[in-house]
């Protein structure tokens, strides 16, 4: 089982928010982003605990900064590092569970979608 499939829905949601962010985010920024997507039931402590778990798993980097006489953390998702680590693991898991044809089918699907996106971008120009 890959680390990716071991991630829970909240962890994947926070990674998606961090991936789209231009700068590192605080736990409060993450909470606000999750709440703006319609999840008003999530608590700050849940977001903080979840993002800290992502740091422990090696998906997110944590930076400390001085803030109002104390310290706060900012979080950043290193997308390239995650891709380098997760894609081979994901492909191997897919190969183990569904066989080589599944890996080939996924590769064809990704190529087709990418080629379609590139064609759409060219048409729009």
UniProtKB/TrEMBL annotation:
Record key words, sorted: DNA-binding, Transcription, Transcription regulation
InterPro entries reported for this sequence: BlaI_family, WH-like_DNA-bd_sf, WH_DNA-bd_sf
Record flagged with keyword Transcription regulation: yes
Pfam families with a match to the protein in the record: Penicillinase_R (PF03965)
Keyword DNA-binding part of the UniProt annotation: yes
GO molecular function: DNA binding
GO BP of this protein: negative regulation of DNA-templated transcription
Family indicated by similarity: Belongs to the BlaI transcriptional regulatory family.
Stated name of the protein: Penicillinase repressor
């Amino acid at each position: 089982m890959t680390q990716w499939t071991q991630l829970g829905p909240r962890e994947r949601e926070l990674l998606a928010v961090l991936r789209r962010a231009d700068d590192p985010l605080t736990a409060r920024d993450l909470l606000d982003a999750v709440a703006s997507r319609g999840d008003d039931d999530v608590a700050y402590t849940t977001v903080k605990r979840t993002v800290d778990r992502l740091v422990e798993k090696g998906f997110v980097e944590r930076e400390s900064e001085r803030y109002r006489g104390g310290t706060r953390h900012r979080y950043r998702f290193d997308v390239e590092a995650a891709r380098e680590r997760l894609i081979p693991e994901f492909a191997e898991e897919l190969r183990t569970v569904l066989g080589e044809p599944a890996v080939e089918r996924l590769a064809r699907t990704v190529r087709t979608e990418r080629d379609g996106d590139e064609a759409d971008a060219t048409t729009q120009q």
